[in-house]
Amino acid sequence: MKRISAVEYRAMAELRYRLRLFLREGDAAARSAGLEPQQYLMLLAIRGLPNGNSAKIRFLADSLLVKHHSAVELVDRLEMRGLVRRTRGREDRRQVMISLLPKGQRVLERVVQQRISEVRAGGNQLIRAIDALLRKKPRR
Q1: What CATH code is carried by the domain that includes residue 102?
Q2: Total number of domains constituting the chain
Q3: Contact of 92 with 35, CB cutoff 8 Å
Q4: Which domain holds residue 126?
């Protein structure tokens, strides 16, 4: 078993810090736009789907790492706020697809613009932390 170097421990600590900072800043950006962090993540999961994929509840629950019923509750709250719409599948009426409404798109875009700016400003530090862990022979 390979021993973990001091450099690797420092890189892991730095990576953990950078990831937590990114997540905390994302939560703050969501709240400043009037969203709860999980609501922002749900909107992002819907908008971030590859072309041709449908935003079904099961997929969204898996994407957010939450239980199916929690995803349903999130969609309920977003729907009440006029941010998303539910539609039934044409072939299989049991399937429920979620789509962004224009208001949801606008709110999401504001948060994502801010997040992209933050990543561009501080992303090099995150890359350095990851790079330190990916090196075959860490520098001592």
Answers
A1: 1.10.10.10
A2: 1
A3: no
A4: 6-134
Question: Is 42 among the domain residues?
Answer: yes
Asked if pLDDT for residue 138 goes beyond 50, the answer is no
Residues in the chain: 140
Q: How confident is the model at residue 137, as a pLDDT?
A: 59
Confidence of residue 132 (pLDDT cuts 50, 70, 90): confident
Q: Please report whether residue 139 resides in a domain.
A: no
pTM of the model: 0.86
